[in-house]
TrEMBL record:
This is UspA domain-containing protein. Residues 1-26 are annotated as: Disordered. Residues 30-188 form the UspA domain. Gene3D superfamilies: HUPs. CDD domains: USP_At3g01520-like (cd23659). Signal peptide: none annotated. SUPFAM superfamilies: Adenine nucleotide alpha hydrolases-like. PANTHER family: ADENINE NUCLEOTIDE ALPHA HYDROLASES-LIKE SUPERFAMILY PROTEIN (PTHR31964).
Length: 193
C-alpha cells in the first residue's frame, strides 16, 4: 500500500515486500554454469561471478558468509559415459570390465577435482554455490537439468570450434542455445576469434 505525504512523496508501508526501482520485486538469480576441462569454461565461471552478482558489503573479509539474497550459482560438469566397445578401422575390440572400471574411476576423480576447483572460485568471491556432476551426453543432460531445476540462466563457454569440427562433433553451446528452457549466455574468452 502506498501513501502520499503532504509534499507529494510516495512511501511504502511495511505491508509491502521490498522492490526494485522499477516496482518489480527482486528475485534471487539462479544460474547454472557448465564447466569442462577447458580454460574457457573456467573463464566463463569467473565472468559470471564478477558480472552477474554483486559482492557482499564485507568485501574481501574471509569471515563474511555468502549472501543468499544475491542468488546462487550451480556449477555442473557432465561426464560422458565410457563405451565398452571401440571401433578401430579394421575390427571391433571389446574392452575388459577392469579397464572400463579403471577409466570410470579416473573420470569420477577428474570430475570431482574440476568441480572442486570451480567451487573454490565461487567461495573466494563469496557467492553462494553448489556443484553437480551428471553422467550422459553433455548437451542433453545440461538441458534436462535446466528444465528440472528451473534455472533462470544457463552460462556456457565457447570453445571456438571451426565450422567443420562443429558440424562433425556438434557444439554443446549451440545445442543448448536452441533447446534449453531458459535464457542462455555464451561467454567467449578474451582473444577468441
Amino acid at each position: 500500500m502506498e501513501e502520499t505525504s503532504a509534499g507529494g512523496d510516495r512511501r511504502r508501508t511495511a505491508e509491502q515486500p521490498p522492490s526494485t526501482a522499477e516496482g518489480v520485486p527482486k528475485k534471487r538469480l539462479r544460474v547454472m554454469v557448465a564447466v569442462d576441462e577447458s580454460d574457457a569454461s573456467l573463464y566463463a565461471l569467473k565472468w559470471t561471478l564478477s558480472n552477474l552478482f554483486n559482492k557482499p558489503a564485507g568485501g574481501e573479509d574471509p569471515e563474511v558468509e555468502p549472501d543468499p539474497e544475491q542468488g546462487m550459482v550451480t556449477v555442473v560438469h557432465v561426464v560422458q559415459p565410457f563405451e565398452r566397445y571401440t571401433f578401430p578401422a579394421e575390427a571391433a575390440m571389446y574392452t575388459s570390465a577392469s579397464m572400463v572400471e579403471s577409466v570410470r574411476k579416473a573420470q569420477r576423480q577428474t570430475a570431482a577435482q574440476l568441480v572442486s576447483r570451480a567451487f573454490q572460485v565461487c567461495k573466494e568471491t563469496k557467492i553462494k554455490a553448489e556443484t553437480l556432476i551428471l553422467e550422459g551426453d553433455p548437451k542433453e543432460m545440461i538441458c534436462q537439468a535446466v528444465e528440472e531445476m528451473h534455472f533462470d540462466l544457463l552460462v556456457l563457454s565457447s570453445r571456438g570450434f571451426g565450422a567443420i569440427k562443429r558440424a562433425l562433433l556438434g557444439s554443446i553451446s549451440d545445442f543448448c542455445a536452441h533447446h534449453a528452457k531458459c535464457p542462455v549466455l555464451i561467454v567467449k574468452p578474451p582473444g577468441h576469434k
